[in-house]
User: Which sequence fits this backbone?
């Protein structure tokens, strides 16, 4: 069942080009971003939407945080994202014109299910679930559904579910933009092309594994790590820190890099490795200055960059470069190296990668 892999997590990381290709198959088949991708009646629901409220837990929540950047930038609709266990227990000011999007790999997470029920009790009837398990509880309770087609995810740490959630959410952002009249045919063609090329770009990122193994060996003896990103890559830093702590038990925290000098910089010394997600985007110069702040305190930098990022390795600065910059879908590609780093650090520490202590695959209790 594992084939050439040592763990389900490693296998599932390597399945991502196929999982993504399967998840976008319907979009590629339609050769357009059409509401029917979300269900037969989705046109009338999505057309009236005035905003988006995303609700999820854990890694699925980080997919939601990434989607907020896409939804607001591409569709112009306001978007908020909330952890399900918080949403369900507070007095929410509901706007039923918003689309409520729940994201769940298993479709059975209790807090997400209860948050959806609560949203419905507040008058939300435009509900969409992004889910990997057909006919599970959350999609059954939702009006619209987009199934990610990652296939069964067995490793407790979510990997291929996350990247397929991202492509489903990107598809949602572009579809909403089209319904808002904000998508030119040229942009639609560009986004289709970006999606079509994504499985190949993800494969290129997977090919970085030997370099990442080298980094993981340096990480294995560490007690703590810091992950930094900015903009749409900040949630990928969060996801990288979660993966590392969950399977290797190394304490890791993620910050938007601009927050460094508002507190966490005090932690940085030569014992603190700092992972930076630094593709070439409009924030790269700012990320570089954040990196200098780390170097000046003796912190060792591990930088995931891409072809265009224009910096190389130097003393205390290790750079791994993805072969090409993939534009708006860059967070999907940058999820791969942080998954591999966590996996190989855990392997070097000898932890039970597929079944980390204290955790369950599907959290059906509070
Ligand atoms: C982390 C992880 C968890 C899940 C979370 C939500 O690797 O797997 O954080 O993402 O428990 O689960 P789902 O997506 O099934 O609702």
Assistant:
């Amino acid at each position: 069942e594992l084939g050439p892999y040592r763990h389900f997590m490693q296998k599932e990381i390597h399945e991502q080009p196929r999982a993504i290709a399967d998840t976008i198959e319907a979009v590629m088949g339609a050769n357009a971003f059409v509401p029917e991708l979300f269900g037969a009646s989705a046109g009338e629901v999505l057309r009236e939407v005035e905003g988006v409220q995303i609700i999820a837990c854990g890694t699925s929540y980080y997919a939601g945080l990434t989607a907020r950047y896409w939804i607001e930038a591409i569709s112009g609709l306001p978007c908020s994202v909330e952890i399900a266990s918080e949403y369900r227990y507070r007095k929410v000011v509901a706007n039923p014109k918003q689309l409520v999007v729940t994201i769940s790999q298993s479709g059975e997470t209790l807090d997400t299910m209860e948050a959806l029920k609560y949203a419905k009790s507040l008058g939300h009837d435009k509900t969409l679930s992004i889910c990997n398990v057909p006919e599970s509880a959350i999609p059954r309770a939702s009006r619209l559904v987009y199934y990610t087609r990652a296939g069964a995810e067995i490793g407790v740490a979510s990997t291929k579910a996350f990247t397929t959630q991202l492509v489903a959410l990107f598809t949602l952002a572009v579809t909403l933009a089209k319904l808002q009249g904000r998508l030119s045919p040229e942009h639609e063609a560009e986004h289709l092309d970006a999606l079509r090329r994504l499985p190949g770009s993800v494969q290129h990122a997977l090919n970085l594994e030997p370099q990442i193994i080298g980094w993981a060996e340096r990480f294995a003896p560490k007690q703590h790590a810091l992950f930094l990103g900015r903009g749409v890559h900040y949630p990928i830093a969060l996801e990288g820190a979660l993966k590392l702590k969950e399977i290797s038990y190394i304490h890791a925290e993620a910050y938007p890099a601009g927050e460094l000098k508002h507190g966490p910089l005090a932690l940085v010394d030569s014992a603190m490795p700092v992972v930076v997600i630094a593709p070439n985007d409009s924030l790269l110069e700012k990320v570089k200055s954040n990196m200098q702040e780390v170097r000046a305190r003796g912190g060792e930098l591990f930088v995931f960059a891409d072809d265009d990022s224009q910096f190389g390795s130097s003393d205390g600065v290790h750079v791994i470069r993805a072969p090409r910059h993939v534009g708006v879908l860059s967070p999907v590609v940058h999820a791969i190296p942080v998954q591999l780093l966590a996996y190989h650090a855990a392997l070097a520490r000898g932890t039970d990668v597929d079944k980390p202590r204290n955790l369950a695959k599907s959290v059906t209790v509070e």
